[in-house]
From TrEMBL:
Compartments where located: Membrane
Transmembrane segments: 7-26, 46-69, 81-101, 107-127, 166-186, 201-219, 231-248, 268-288, 308-326, 333-354, 366-385, 397-420, 487-505
Gene Ontology cellular component annotations, sorted alphabetically: membrane
Keyword Membrane: yes
Species lineage: Bacteria, Pseudomonadati, Bacteroidota, Flavobacteriia, Flavobacteriales
Name assigned to this protein: MFS transporter
Length: 522
């Protein structure tokens, strides 16, 4: 660490702060959806596409952004993307249609991914010699995971104080700070990692085509009930054809976008599965968010405070796991700790699915979830890069991103919504069948409700109708709680399963090997 002490800690902090707004262009408006939907008056389907498209645009542009960020002098790059980010962000305020709003948000996402890579380059070049790669990855995950929850918390509070536009102004202020920091820290306008520009345009087109199909599946799969709709079946078949064409393309291309040779390394195969696994486990947070809003009636300000609970866990776990990885602890120790925390989180939430629960009961589970993220995310990002040659670095990065973000978070989230809907219908049907005169408890409750409505002056017919509606609402609430319980019970078992496998087969009983690739910036 001697080289680090000779450098400026102030410069290091400033360079990391410069990355934060680019990481969070979509996070700061994460809780503005209802206001934005009301502002534009778009249909639910259109708004669903509007929510997905900027994320897919960012991910689709990721491999090209990595190349572009290395070709242009850094100060010019940072100033340009910061200015364009302010321009695109401001334009989204004054658009009159959801379509143009989506266009501006997508352009902002694309610009941001270039900014992420551009701001990472000087950190990697200047401080990587002073850092063990475990520390480099740990710091990047600390900044990424920590800042996203802070931005979501602040964005919700800003929305509550004013409206959804306040978050846009806040983000513009962040990019303005980025412009100031760029003038301070980028003294020389050079491109230190510039090389001959080579890019797999055909492979990129095929990747965008496959992302378009997955976007359609995410947005339309649940409403079309998946494979019961012929368009979904055709889309999946088309996706498989695209993958086949890409494999053929990669076979005869010198430097393909995602080189299949990267899967000859076992840690990339298992690491991609680990990325997918953690993405699925982390993605169930949307269930709790819906439970808080639709069943318990919590306001958005309380939901935003759950991000503070996650931050506590993250701020404890990431420095600790980074230190343990730096001290070359066994990989299995980190994995077991992380999976156990995820299992405890899902188990604790399983017992929170009942009406009238107190908000404070969610605090501990979310801290434990933050611990799980802090232990598994840096370790998985390091593990998938272990021993991979630099010419396969981009392939390793795209493999991890597709596994965790595209397949687990986006597509997996859409499938999870369908599973909840189907489980809800199943339980509601079962509970409704019990609402008969032979069910004395239900009959007594119906009569009590009917008596209450009669005392309020309703007619016999109206009181009967309102009592039946009230009982039906209670049945619906009980059904959705049972559906949530089903999902979290299954996830609890899925989270603890890797712990048993690691212990039984004695996996990961070694420290991490050599890592030379840059951190995955997503």
């Amino acid at each position: 660490m001697a080289k680090l002490k000779k450098g400026s800690v102030f410069t290091l902090v400033g360079l990391y702060v410069l990355t934060i707004p680019f990481f969070n262009t979509l996070n700061v408006t994460a809780y503005d959806n209802s206001q934005i939907l009301g502002h534009f008056g778009a249909s639910t389907t259109v708004f669903t596409y509007s929510s997905y498209i900027p994320a897919f645009a960012m991910l689709a542009f990721l491999p090209l952004a990595l190349i572009v960020a290395k070709q242009i002098p850094l100060r010019t790059m940072i100033l340009s993307v910061s200015f364009l980010a302010i321009l695109f962000n401001t334009a989204s305020l004054y658009t009159t249609s959801i379509q143009w709003f989506t266009v501006w948000r997508s352009l902002l996402s694309i610009i941001s991914i270039i900014g992420i890579f551009a701001t990472m380059i000087p950190i990697i070049l200047k401080y990587n010699p002073a850092f063990n790669m475990a520390i480099m990855y740990g710091i990047m995950q600390f900044i990424l995971q920590g800042s996203q929850h802070i931005y979501k918390y602040l964005g919700t509070n800003f929305t509550s104080l004013y409206d959804w536009t306040f978050s846009i102004y806040f983000l513009n202020f962040n990019f303005f700070i980025g412009i100031v920091l760029a003038w301070i820290f980028y003294k020389k306008d050079v491109a230190p990692m510039k090389s001959v520009f080579q890019f797999d345009w055909r492979g990129w087109f095929l990747m965008i085509l496959s992302f378009t199909v997955i976007l359609f599946l995410c947005a339309e799969g649940q409403t079309r009930n998946w494979f019961s709709d012929p368009k979904i079946s055709i889309s999946v078949a088309f996706l498989l054809i695209i993958i086949g064409i890409y494999l053929l393309h990669a076979r005869f291309t010198k430097e393909p976008l995602i080189n299949p040779d990267v899967y000859r390394y076992k840690n990339v195969v298992f690491g991609s599965f680990l990325f997918f696994y953690t993405g699925v486990m982390n993605g169930t947070g949307s269930i709790v968010s819906g439970y808080m809003t639709n069943v318990l009636g919590f306001d958005t300000l309380y939901q935003a405070r759950t991000h503070l609970a996650l931050l506590i866990g993250i701020f404890i776990a990431i420095p600790l796991s980074t230190y343990l990885l730096y001290k070359r602890i066994y990989i299995a120790t980190i994995w077991i700790t992380g999976f156990t925390c995820f299992g405890l989180y899902h188990t604790l939430i399983f017992f929170r699915f009942y009406p009238e629960i107190s908000p404070s009961d969610f605090f501990l589970p979310f801290i434990i979830k933050g611990l799980a993220i802090g232990f598994l995310y840096p370790a998985s990002a390091l593990y998938i890069a272990e021993g991979i040659p630099k010419n396969l670095g981009d392939s390793r990065m795209m493999s991890g991103v597709i596994a965790r973000v595209i397949l687990a978070t986006l597509l997996g989230g859409a499938i999870l919504g369908t599973m909840i809907s189907n489980a809800n219908i199943h339980h509601k049907t079962g509970l409704s069948q019990q609402l008969s005169p032979t069910n004395q408890l239900a009959e007594n409750q119906l009569n009590q409700s009917k008596t209450v409505y009669l005392r309020k002056g309703l007619s016999e017919k109206e009181a009967q109708k309102m009592a039946e509606k009230n009982l039906s609402n209670q049945t619906s609430q009980a059904a959705i709680l049972l559906a949530y319980k089903d999902i979290y019970l299954v996830l609890s078992a899925i989270c603890f399963l890797p712990v048993l496998i690691i212990l039984l087969f004695r996996l990961g009983r070694r420290p991490l090997g050599r890592v030379e690739l840059e951190p995955i910036p997503i």
